[in-house]
Amino acid sequence: MTTETTSTTDPSPDPAPTPNPNPNSSSVIHPRREPFEHGLLPIPKLIFPDTTQILTQLKQKLASHNRVNSSLLADSLQIPADHARLILDTLASVLNSESDPLVKAPPDEVDSAGADLRDLILFLYIQSYKKLLPRTHKDAAAVADVWPSTSAFDGYLSALSPLQLVRSNSRRFMPSQADEEAHQLSYLQKHMANILSLLAESVEGEGEESLVLSMEGFDHLGFLIQFGDKGSEVVTLSQAAPFFANSDPDMPAVPVPATQVLDWISQNIASALEHITERISAKENGPANSSDPDVAMADACTSSIKTSPSARGSCFIEGISKSSFVKQALDLKGSSSVKVLNCHDSILYILAPLRYATIYGCSDSTIVLGAVGKAVRIEHCERVHVITAAKRVCIANCRECVFFLGVNQRPLMVGDNHKLQVAPYNTFYSELEEHMADVGIDANINRWDETLALGVVDPHDSLSHPAGVSDVQAESAARLDPDQFTNFLIPNWFGGESPGSTKDNPFQLPEAYMASQQRNQKNLGEIKQLLREVPLEENQKRELSSALHLLFKDWLYASGNIRQLYCLQGD
């Protein structure tokens, strides 16, 4: 199998690549992917006509406030209060500092904690980022086989379903991790001068030399970039930079001219882009390695490929088809994020504490995520049931899916969604509460049905859309009928005493769903009692038992649940 990969960079010529200007470090500069993957909000008022000018004015307006709460932000940007709170919650989910008061604050104290003005400025700046587009499909006939050309659910945005859109751009034609990293680095390379000007402070002098960066201000760039290779720990920027590395901890570091910082970062980015280009070229010209996470996303996506670890704590679960799949905490040790990509007609259990999770391009599957402490993004999925305990959830461009949520923040609905349903969390496994405590999820808060719908159009996707569509709100989700609500049982793969202490669903069910459960249990008990008391001869009882077993077996095969039994037998 050959790998097709395109490296996308800024069209302007890059400066001549130079070796890493920090000779004492073998680290390579990387973009932090979290702000670009989980921090972009489709709010039109955050797409500024002149980003630098408006954010400079915002910085000056809020200069007397070290930290900014939602009411101050709403007033400054002239946006609704719930959008301002969403900005703070989203920023908290992608910040690089776990010690920041905004990250540590419980939900009812987020406003009193507020956001650091410099972090907020950087977050608002990257709302100008445009995602890397997938390449067009080379076989239009293949697309027609996936989904009908028209559908009762299709609106004016697209004649394709979300999954058809994904498959029409098959992961073989989606950008690889290396391509996305190059694209993010090129964006930062192009905008770094503006970004530094927003972080810098003015001193007496003329021209650009009057702008300087303190060590503290410089470290805020860690929101966007970081140093660290595979297997190495990420270091703070001031530790990696030659102009702050040897600063006396007992003395305030001398501010550095912004031009000097820009030169150093630009050289590092140019070197990193050269490194990525060489890596991509080597993969294209060498034998394909489907387990490599930098391979274009779905070249590694075959039914025989299950998981692949990635640099900097990511694990990819790809191409699972018509099977059951289990990953537990020990299997994901060292991975802080999981991406579930292009899995179909399967049941996946990912029972581990995570920071981030992405589910993309899946269909006709049930996916159980353990505890996700930062953010879950579910995109381009169809007829999928997702069960997760999470801090926040974003759902984009999905159809006919049901989401069983234990979520501390309002679920975010964006894009071209159709016929979605939400329901309260409906399962548990023995280590669930321990995992929730590890990542900071509060079982006493579940906002599963307080969905917040934003725009249908994502201003970050670089696609053209019909006039007027940008103001259309995304379709929200309906509450699942309580009579359709059932508990989901996770098998015990340990085969004996479970290692954890969780014995039941840690999230309290709403009254209507609890009443429905009790009715179902009562009805089941009555049916069992009737069967026990029915006056039958022994041979008739055997015939009834045989008929029930046969019907149950037929249901197992018709529903696909027979695969779970085979999976358990295999374990």
Automatic annotation (TrEMBL):
GO annotation, cellular component aspect: spindle pole
Pfam families, per the entry: TBCC (PF07986)
Source superkingdom: Eukaryota
Signal peptide coordinates: none
Keywords, in A-Z order: Cytoplasm, Cytoskeleton
Localization (cell): Cytoplasm, Cytoskeleton, Microtubule organizing center, Centrosome; Cytoplasm, Cytoskeleton, Spindle pole
Positions with biased composition (Low complexity): 1-11
Region Disordered: start-end pairs: 1-31
Biased composition (Pro residues): 12-22
Annotated ranges, domain C-CAP/cofactor C-like: 309-441
Family of the protein in this entry: Belongs to the TBCC family.
Name assigned to this protein: TBCC domain-containing protein 1
Species the sequence originates in: Populus trichocarpa
